[in-house]
Amino acid sequence: MNPLFSHVKQHFASLRSQQKWAFIWRVWIETTLFAYIVANILQAILRSPGRTDLDGYSPLALVGLTVFVGPLFETLVFQCVALELAGSLRLRRFLQFAVSIVPFAIAHFFAGIPTFVSAGVIAGFYFAFTYDHWKQESFFVGVAMTFILHSSFNLVGVLGMLLLR
């Protein structure tokens, strides 16, 4: 087995062994750092235009949409429905994750390549991983843990966006 693949597999196995709050803060830090570093590198290379579609929203509306409404809806559609459907089809775990990540990433494509890669692919993977792991305990725990991760991830982005206005 490839040493890098083996190391990554061991890393995610160690995350799976964590209790809820140790899991969530470790995965949140990893997701946030990895995704935002990649987004900033891609933004520097590609010089994507800023998001003008959000200019008309008040700060409260932006927070409400990006921290509550969006993460709940996306968790239910892109993680719960997608992973449960893929699981019912008995697809391999890699394909189950792809069924979740690909549409999630496509839904973020309108915001530009940096967002497509960082929020769509990278964060989408971590959201799928979180739901897949915690749904074993219960559907509610899977949704709650994924929502908390997604919501707190988005909070960093929306606060940054508001500070740069």
What does this structure look like?
The protein is mainly α and 165 residues long. Helices cover 81% and strands 0% of the residues. The chain contains six helices and no strands. Helix 2 packs antiparallel against helix 5, helix 2 (20-46) crosses helix 6 (139-163) and helix 3 runs antiparallel to helix 4 (93-107). The termini are far apart. The model has no long low-confidence stretch (mean pLDDT 94).
Task: Kindly name the structural category.
Answer: mainly alpha
Backbone CA Rg: 16 Å
Gap between N and C termini: 48 Å
- Roughly what is the average pLDDT, rounded to an integer? 94
Query: Which outline best applies?
Result: globular
Order of helices and strands: HHHHHH
Q: Report helical residue fraction.
A: over 70%
Strand content: under 5%
Query: Spans with pLDDT under 50 lasting ≥5 residues?
Result: none
What is the tally of beta strands? 0
Q: Helix segment count?
A: 6
Main β sheet profile: none
How would you briefly describe this protein structure?
This protein is mainly α and 165 residues long. The protein contains 6 helices and no strands. Helix 5 runs antiparallel to helix 6 (139-163).
Q: How do the helices and strands line up, and which of them pair or pack?
A:
Elements: H1 3-16, H2 20-46, H3 59-88, H4 93-107, H5 113-134, H6 139-163
Helix pairs in contact: 2-5, 2-6, 3-4, 3-5, 3-6, 4-5, 5-6
What characteristics describe this protein?
6 helices; 165 residues; mainly alpha
